[in-house]
Automatic annotation (TrEMBL):
InterPro entries: AAA+_ATPase, ABC1_TM_dom, ABC1_TM_sf, ABC_transporter-like_ATP-bd, Cyc_pep_transpt_SyrD/YojI, P-loop_NTPase, Type_1_exporter. Residues 320-544 form the ABC transporter domain. This is Putative ATP-binding cassette transporter. Pfam families: ABC_tran (PF00005). GO terms for molecular function: ABC-type transporter activity; ATP binding; ATP hydrolysis activity; ATPase-coupled lipid transmembrane transporter activity; peptide transmembrane transporter activity. The keyword Magnesium does not apply. It comes from the Bacteria. It is a multi-pass membrane protein. GO terms for biological process: peptide transport. The chain crosses the membrane at residues 12-34, 46-63, 114-136, 142-161, 222-247, 259-277. It is found in: Cell membrane. The lineage of its organism: Bacteria, Pseudomonadati, Bacteroidota, Chitinophagia, Chitinophagales.
Amino acid sequence: MLQLKTRNALFLLMYAIPNTILSFGIVYIINNALAGKKGLLGADTGWLFLGLIICTYALNIFFQRQLNRYSFHLLYENEKRVFGKILQSSLPKLEKFGAKRFFTAVEDLRTFSFLPYAVTHTVNSLLMLVLCIIYMFSLSLIAAMVVILMISALAGAYLYVIRTMSKKVSILRGYNEQYFQYVDDVMKGFKELKLSFFRRENLMNKFLTPNRNNARDLDFKINYIFLSIGLVSQYGLYFIVGVVLFLLPFTGWLSAADIIAYVVMILFISGPINNLINLQQIFTRFRVANGRIKKFVSDFDMLDDAPQQATDDASAFSDLTFKDIHFNYHNDAGETMFSLGPVDLQVNNNETIFIIGGNGSGKSTFINLLTGLYKPTAGKIVLNGADGPHRIEELQSLIAAVFTDNHLFSQNYETFSLDGNPEYSSLLRLMQLDKVVGEDTEAAARRKFSKGQSKRMSLIFALLEKKPVIVLDEWAADQDPHFRKYFYETLLPQLKEQGKTVIAVTHDDAYFHLADRIVKFDKGVIVKDIRVSTEALHSEAIWS
Ligand SMILES: Nc1ncnc2c1ncn2[C@@H]1O[C@H](COP(=O)(O)OP(=O)(O)OP(=O)(O)O)[C@@H](O)[C@H]1O
């Protein structure tokens, strides 16, 4: 994700080289003025000095602007990319990694807002260091070697400590990821937590507090190590100044004026050196964040899983056949947790099929396969007599669904509008929601509904998609007895009359006689597939 392209590197150098030369010019003038040397300078030194300051300032302003623009572009583009990855991801991937991965990836991206600061300071500091060292060499080879040896020893000790830090920063990120999981539990399980003192206490004391304490201690340790090593380098430089001031004069390697130049240089480069040292902390965080974002992107990279193309408007549906379809759930160790299949089933146009079976028998898993959200591990899906790689996309263009955990979006992401839409108004009446919603406007539809009402709204939106196949997963479970009866006895027959094919997962055995077919799952396989007639219902012990 974070890669320095040649173009960017050249741009950096185009700025950094003149900037460093100009900045060095400033130091050079100060140095010579202090040491009483004329050097290369003449009577207009003051003007030159002013000119250098203005030029460096202008150069910095221009460059910082460009760099800021580039990094914010990078940041916000990557935010969009991460969002896109989630949208393209397959359902099994999302179920495996969970929403917390998304939040931490966004947080990791935010780390890169320090990028402009880090890059400019690093490049400037490095070049300045190089120029100062060259200058020191020009004054005395041996003295420069001594100073560089001492600086290298300091840098070596520093780098050694730094190498141990990446792992610690990574562990800290892991703690924070876990923390987001607890936040998610609090948000989603707020009511359950409110009801139980012990649950709250356990979450707080056994999970959240240890997590935060560990994170706090590690965060402190990381920062303390960086701080200490920063201080060592700062005071180490004073030590080097001491050596130059009090030992080098006895060696005869430097004149008195050059000693002043050396001290000025060392004091001057203490800034760049401290910058470089402090920046290591940011770079360590960059490295960790970059690695994690790369992992996120590769984890969610399942291009073959997600339909990328918009399909044509819903076409006609004639039949759908599942041939020897299999699907397995695996745990992290790769062991199979549940197997669905072999499933062989044909769904014909205009049928009303009820999918029944006990809890955990595989009904919802089948629905996820039927709607193309899960990809079969084996078998063939034949749509309208043909199979092939794009059948899933076509299938999805024919299906509108309301899932058990339905969600009403905060905005209208659909191709239809609700404002003054006569079809929407009539569906509101059909679902007996016209008095609840009030107006046929977007604003009125985006409000809080009761669970049963929200299911009705979801069904309205599904019907507005005008697709020939309607899939409902335990849709009526949240409806009151009156509306449930109305749904089975009035709404479903109406949908059939309109030519819709309805596949509904249900436990409502009182209404089984209203289906055309009943398909029963048990332990991941279809154990019954019966055409409904009153006699059949009486003779078959479907529920057994
Ligand atoms: N994401 C998942 N990862 C692993 N196992 C899963 C996952 N989803 C479901 N299962 C398992 O697969 C089996 C079938 O689940 P499924 O949700 O299809 O059952 P169901 O028939 O819809 O049940 P219910 O009537 O309770 O909704 C169950 O044993 C369940 O624990």
